[in-house]
Amino acid sequence: MTEEYKDAYVLRCPYCGGTEMIQTFQSAYGAVSAVNNKFSGRPLYHTVCRKCGSVVRSYVKDPEKLLKRKDRKI
Predict the structure, then answer these.
(1) Contact 54, 36 (CB under 8 A)
(2) Alpha-carbon span 57 to 14, nearest angstrom
(3) Burial tier of 36 (Cβ tally within 10 Å: 0-12, 13-18, 19+)
(4) From 63's CA, which of 15, 37, 40, 44 has a CA 20 to 30 Å away?
(5) What are 46-64's pLDDT values in tens digits?
(6) d(Cα 25, Cα 22) in Å, to the nearest integer?
(7) What is the DSSP string of 2-66?
(8) How far apart are CA 3 and CA 47, in angstroms?
């Protein structure tokens, strides 16, 4: 289990019970953008079960960057 995976909080696949996960990501055309800020695309990360291939979690790292600069809290 890698350090990055420990942050994912998925220990067991809810579909098959598998415990080995693979971290993947989508970028370019699979990027996520806020509705009111279409130029803020961020990669979409997935935690995938190695046994059955189910995507058990999807998330965006640093979601604050999806907002326009003036609307960010940080």
Answers:
(1) no
(2) 11
(3) exposed
(4) 15
(5) 999 999 999 999 998 877 7
(6) 10
(7) -HHHHTT---S-TTT----EEEEEE-GGG-EEETTEEEEEEPEEEEEETTT--EEEEE-SSGGGG
(8) 13
In the three-class reduction of DSSP (H, G, I as helix; E, B as strand; rest coil), residue 67 is classed as coil
**Residue stretches of the chain with pLDDT short of 70:** 1-9, 37-38, 40, 68-70, 72, 74
Nearest Cα neighbor of 24 from 5, 7, 10, 51 is 5
pTM: 0.69
Neighbours of 16 (CB within 10 A): 14
Q: Are 61 and 49 a contacting pair, CB within 8 Å?
A: no
Q: Do 46 and 58 touch, CB atoms closer than 8 A?
A: yes
The DSSP secondary-structure symbol of 70 reads: G
Tokens representing 9 are 């909080």
